[in-house]
């Protein structure tokens, strides 16, 4: 694409679709497709171009409830990419967990081309492929990833990502695009059955990009779901938030019937596009955001405690400081978290140790408390460097964490502390679920194998607990590292 020829490639996509793509079925079968406003805006945003005329986005996740025309929309993009992608010699793919699923978008594109006199003259249709006069070829592939290692995609429409048994096919497609100038991997899906797997990882990553926690312009995220996740599933206004086609080609009467016939969990996932909830959220909605405060605290001016929660590979490692004062203030000063889809990542232990040591010399904390699990050697190193009276163990046993969690909950509701507004901490607080144990409620993930991180939330509880003790609000026993 030549610089200056297009303000937004999405305009070109919409123009192509509305001039050449024919609806193959339904009430509008045989007519040229006319994008609805939401489809046009989605297309403009997805195919947005930058200053050099190249696409801004390389990877996309788009989530919308069932029967909102995902497959038709994906097929229009596939038809455009097959016929008008600026990069010559393209390889376009429809991908899914099964070949039948992958063929849905492929077959819809085939019918669209057959119904268009202009496109049918440009494309030769085979049983398993479509070839354009430009040399670009379009095929369907499924999750048997061992047969797909040699592909070099320029674009891929990945249907129902939540059904993928693993991240293998997604990774192969993504890595195969590395040599392309402006590839586009588009995942289109409905919410999955639980917070795990490649679709959840992408959804979680997309929320972090949307919130500003992660800066990644190459990743496009659009998820149609209720703004208030706790809104009643019978609230008709939430239906429109998740179903942009409602009242148009999606019948309102049909959704009313579904709301009466489907179990709430199924209705929320399939019709409201919401991921199933686990145990109850720890803090009431809006409480945490209301505690945010902009405070400039210089090291050495205020007494603080550090809390450290370490992991090895799958979770994240957290370091939080909390001021010891009438109204404590929580600050994230260190955070190491596994990047999306990187199975080889490990916590950089040396970097963690050196960071804690450097910050401890700068802030001079009254205490550094940590759960010793898997981090005994690091705590012994820090104890030698900083003093055994500073580095103390805080085992995350129910007898300690349950009352500490309850006290922090009560303080949050009462507005008795503030925090620095760190986006990762807010995400971990939102992920934290209150699971009931014999000792009482304790913070846990939704499921043991969930990719949702809560380490910063746990660390915040530890830091606030010790700051409360040192501030005279509570008396509690802790153990010296060398006494155990």
What does this protein structure show overall?
By secondary structure, the protein is of the alpha/beta class. Helices cover 37% and strands 17% of the residues. An eight-stranded mixed β-sheet has the order 3-4-5-2-6-7-1-8, with helices on both faces. A seven-stranded mixed β-sheet has the order 15-12-11-10-13-14-18. Residues 1-6 and 475-484 have low confidence and may be disordered.
Summarize this structure as a short list of keywords or feature phrases.
disordered C terminus, seven-stranded mixed sheet, 484 residues, eight-stranded mixed sheet, alpha/beta, Rossmann fold, Nucleotidyltransferase, domain 5
Question: What's the quick description here?
Answer:
The protein contains 16 helices and 18 strands.
Tertiary shape? elongated
CATH architecture of the largest domain: 3-Layer(aba) Sandwich
Provide the CATH top-level class of the largest domain: Alpha Beta
Read across the widest sheet, the strand sequence of neighbours is: 3-4-5-2-6-7-1-8
Derived from helix and strand composition plus strand pairing, the structural class reads alpha/beta
Q: Classify the beta-strand content into a percent band.
A: 15-25%
Task: Please render the helix and strand layout as text.
Blueprint lengths: L8 H12 L16 H10 L12 E5 L6 H15 L6 E5 L3 H16 L2 H6 E3 L3 E4 L4 E5 L13 E5 L8 H9 L7 E6 L8 H14 L7 E5 L12 H7 L9 H10 L2 H7 L9 E2 L5 H4 L13 E6 L6 E8 L5 E9 L11 H15 L3 E4 L5 H11 L4 E3 L4 H17 L3 E2 L3 H9 L1 E5 L2 E5 L10 H16 L8 E2 L4
């Amino acid at each position: 694409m030549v610089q200056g020829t297009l303000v937004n490639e999405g305009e070109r996509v919409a123009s192509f679709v509305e001039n050449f793509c024919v609806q193959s079925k339904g009430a509008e079968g045989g007519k040229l497709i006319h994008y609805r406003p939401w489809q046009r805006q989605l297309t403009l945003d997805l195919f947005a171009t930058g200053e050099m005329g190249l696409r801004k986005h390389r990877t996309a996740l788009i989530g919308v409830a069932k029967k909102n025309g995902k497959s038709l929309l994906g097929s229009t993009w596939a038809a455009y990419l097959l016929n008008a992608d600026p990069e010559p010699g393209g390889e376009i793919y429809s991908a899914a967990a099964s070949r039948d699923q992958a063929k849905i978008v492929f077959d819809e594109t085939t019918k669209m081309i057959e119904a268009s006199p202009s496109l049918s003259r440009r494309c030769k249709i085979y049983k398993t492929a479509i070839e354009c006069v430009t040399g670009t070829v379009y095929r369907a592939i499924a999750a048997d990833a061992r047969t797909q290692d040699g592909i070099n995609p320029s674009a891929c429409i990945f249907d129902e990502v939540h059904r993928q048994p693993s991240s293998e096919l997604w990774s192969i497609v993504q890595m195969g695009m590395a040599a392309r100038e402006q590839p586009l991997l588009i995942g289109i899906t409905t919410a999955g059955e639980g917070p795990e797997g490649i679709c959840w990882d992408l959804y979680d990553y997309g929320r972090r990009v949307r919130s500003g926690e992660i800066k990644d312009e190459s990743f496009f995220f659009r998820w149609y779901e209720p703004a208030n996740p706790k809104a009643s599933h019978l609230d008709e206004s939430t239906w429109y938030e998740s179903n942009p086609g409602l009242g148009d080609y999606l019948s309102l009467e049909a959704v009313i019937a579904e709301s009466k016939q489907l179990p709430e969990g199924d209705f929320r996932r399939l019709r409201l596009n919401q991921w199933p909830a686990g145990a109850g959220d720890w803090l009431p909605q809006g409480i945490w955001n209301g505690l945010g405060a902009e405070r400039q605290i210089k090291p050495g001016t205020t007494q603080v405690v550090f809390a450290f929660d370490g992991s090895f590979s799958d979770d994240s490692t957290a370091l939080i400081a909390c001021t010891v004062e009438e109204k404590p203030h929580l600050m994230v000063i260190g955070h190491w978290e596994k990047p999306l889809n990187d199975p080889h990542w490990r916590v950089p232990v040396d970097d963690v140790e050196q960071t804690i040591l450097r910050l401890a010399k700068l802030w001079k904390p009254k205490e550094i408390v940590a759960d010793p699990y898997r981090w005994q050697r690091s705590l012994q190193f820090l104890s030698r460097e900083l003093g055994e009276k500073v580095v103390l163990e805080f085992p995350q046993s129910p007898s300690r964490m349950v009352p500490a969690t309850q006290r922090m909950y009560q303080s949050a509701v009462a507005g008795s502390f503030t925090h620095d507004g760190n986006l990762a901490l807010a995400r971990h607080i939102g992920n934290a679920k209150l699971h009931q144990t014999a000792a009482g409620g304790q913070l846990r993930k939704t499921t043991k194998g969930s990719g949702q991180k809560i380490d910063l939330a746990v660390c915040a509880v530890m830091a606030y607990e010790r700051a409360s003790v040192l501030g005279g609000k509570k008396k509690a026993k802790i153990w010296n590292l060398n006494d155990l």
